[in-house]
Specification:
With 424 residues, this protein is of the alpha+beta class. The protein is built from 16 helices and eleven strands.
Length: 424
C-alpha cells in the first residue's frame, strides 16, 4: 500500500506532516508539543494543562476567546485541546475549503496568545473546578490515585491537571517560562489531514509559524522503576459501588514486545468476548463494567484492570482478576483464542483510523513521540505475527510477585486485607 502521508521540515525546524484523504469533506489540523505533566516540578504540577486552557483565551489579532471560537465554529468546525503526561495537543476540524483558516487560527494561538493576568485568574477557577469535578467522579478519581499507586511521588505519577493548591499559586511568569522552554519548532509537529495538498499546507505553515522560536527543551527526568511504598491508594467513600483499579508496571512505547502486550490486553479485557468480561461479569455477575487497558510512555508503561463492584463482591472480583492475569504466565494462549484476539485487535485498529482526524492524530503523535510513523499495514502485520509464546513471554516480564498496585474509591476492605489479596 502506498504511503498516504508526506513530511517537510521548515527552516525553523517545525515538521509539517500531511495525510491526504481526497474524498474527505474535512480538513483536520493538529499541533503537537512534546510537553506534559512529567515535565513539571512539585510547585508547577498542572502547568502544561493550565497553558492548554489559556491558549484559547485571546491572541494579539483575536483578543477575545469568542473571536477564536467563532473563527472555527463560524466555518462550521470545532476546536479543542488535550494534555497528557508527555504531550499537549491543540486541534480543530473544519470543512476542507476552510483549511487555511484553521491552520492560521492554530498558529495564532500557539505563538501570539496574550496570557493576560485577568484571564489567567479567571481561568484559574475554571481549572480548579475541573479538578474538583474529577475528584467527585469516583470512576475518574480512581485513575488519578492509581498513578500514585503505580509510579509513586514522581512526575510520571502526578495528576495531569495538578491540584487546587498548585493551580492557585501559578503566575503568568510560570506560563511564559514554560512555553519559552517547550513551545519550540524542534519540539513540535503540525499534522494536517483530509482533503488537502501537501505543498499548499507547507507554504501556509511556513508563513503562519514563522514566529515559532528555535530551541531544544530539557528532557524530563527518567522514571524510577520500582513499585512505590504507597502502592495501596484507598479513598473510602459511602457509595453504592466500589471503583477498583489494579495495575502493574509494563513496557515503554517502542519496546518490541508491545504488540504481544496489546494482544494480551485485548484477550484480557477488551470486548464482550474477553476473559474478564466472561469470567467477572457473565459467569459470576460480580460487576457491570470490567475492562483492561494500557499506557505506554517514553521509558515506562502500565497495564491496568478497572472494575465497578459492590462492596460484598470486592474481594472475590480482585481474586478473579489476579487469577486471570497470572494465567497468561502459566498457560500459553490456545490457537482459537489467539486467532480471535488477533482478528479483534487488527479489525478494531483499522476501524479506529476511519476518519481524517484519527489518521492525522495518530501520525502526528507517532512522529513527535517516536521519531517515525508506522503505516497501518505494518501495524496489522506485526499484530498478525505475534505468537502464543510471545504473549506468554511478555506476561512473564510484567507479572510476578510484588508487582501489583491498587486504587480504590468507595466502600472498601482495609489495607491489610487488600495487601494480602495482592500477594496471595
Amino acid at each position: 500500500m502506498a504511503r498516504d502521508w508526506q513530511l517537510t521540515t521548515l527552516d525553523n525546524g517545525l515538521r509539517v506532516l500531511t495525510t491526504a484523504v481526497p474524498t474527505a469533506q474535512s480538513a483536520s489540523t493538529a499541533f503537537f508539543v512534546r510537553v506534559g505533566s512529567r515535565n513539571e516540578d512539585p510547585r508547577t504540577n498542572g502547568l502544561s494543562h493550565y497553558i492548554e486552557h489559556m491558549l484559547s483565551k485571546g491572541t494579539e489579532t483575536r483578543p477575545k476567546a469568542t473571536q477564536i471560537s467563532q473563527a472555527i465554529e463560524g466555518a462550521g468546525g470545532s476546536l479543542n485541546a488535550y494534555t497528557t503526561k508527555e504531550l499537549t495537543t491543540y486541534w480543530n476540524n473544519v470543512p476542507f475549503e476552510r483549511a487555511e483558516t484553521a491552520l492560521e487560527v492554530l498558529a495564532d494561538m500557539v505563538q501570539h496568545s496574550l496570557l493576560e493576568g485577568e484571564e489567567i485568574d479567571r481561568e484559574r477557577t475554571v481549572v480548579q473546578q475541573e479538578i474538583k469535578r474529577a475528584h467527585d467522579n469516583p470512576g475518574s478519581f480512581v485513575g488519578e490515585l492509581l498513578g500514585l499507586a503505580v509510579y509513586g511521588d514522581q512526575p510520571i505519577g502526578w495528576p495531569i491537571a495538578g491540584s487546587v493548591e498548585t493551580v492557585e499559586e501559578m503566575q503568568r511568569s510560570d506560563l511564559m517560562e514554560h512555553m519559552g522552554q517547550y513551545y519550540t519548532a524542534e519540539n513540535a509537529v503540525l499534522s494536517v489531514s483530509g482533503n488537502v495538498e501537501h505543498e499548499q499546507v507547507v507554504e501556509q505553515a511556513a508563513a503562519a509559524f514563522q514566529d515559532l522560536p528555535n530551541g531544544t527543551p530539557p528532557s524530563p527526568p527518567a522514571s524510577q522503576q520500582d513499585r512505590p511504598e504507597a502502592y495501596l491508594q484507598l479513598d473510602p467513600r459511602d457509595l453504592e459501588q466500589t471503583n477498583v483499579a489494579i495495575s502493574m508496571r509494563a513496557i515503554a512505547r517502542k519496546d518490541p514486545d508491545h504488540y504481544a502486550l496489546d494482544l494480551m490486553n485485548t484477550a484480557l479485557g477488551r470486548g464482550m468476548s474477553s476473559r474478564l468480561f466472561q469470567e467477572v461479569r457473565e459467569r459470576r455477575g460480580l460487576a457491570y463494567s470490567v475492562s483492561a487497558g494500557g499506557a505506554r510512555f517514553s521509558d515506562t508503561g502500565s497495564l491496568t484492570v478497572s472494575a465497578g463492584v459492590t462492596r460484598e463482591h470486592q474481594e472475590e472480583a480482585i481474586e478473579v482478576i489476579l487469577t486471570e492475569l497470572r494465567k497468561f504466565v502459566d498457560e500459553p494462549m490456545g490457537d482459537e483464542e489467539l486467532q480471535r484476539t488477533k482478528d479483534y485487535a487488527a479489525g478494531s485498529f483499522r476501524l479506529s483510523l476511519e476518519t481524517p482526524m484519527a489518521l492525522g492524530q495518530r501520525y502526528g503523535s507517532q512522529l513527535l513521540m517516536d521519531g517515525e510513523i508506522e503505516p497501518p499495514d505494518e501495524t496489522v502485520e506485526a499484530i498478525r505475527a505475534v505468537t502464543a509464546e510471545d504473549i506468554q513471554q511478555v506476561a512473564k516480564r510484567i507479572i510476578g510477585p510484588g508487582i501489583f498496585s491498587i486504587a480504590v474509591v468507595g466502600p472498601t476492605a482495609d489495607a491489610d486485607r487488600l495487601d494480602a489479596l495482592l500477594h496471595g
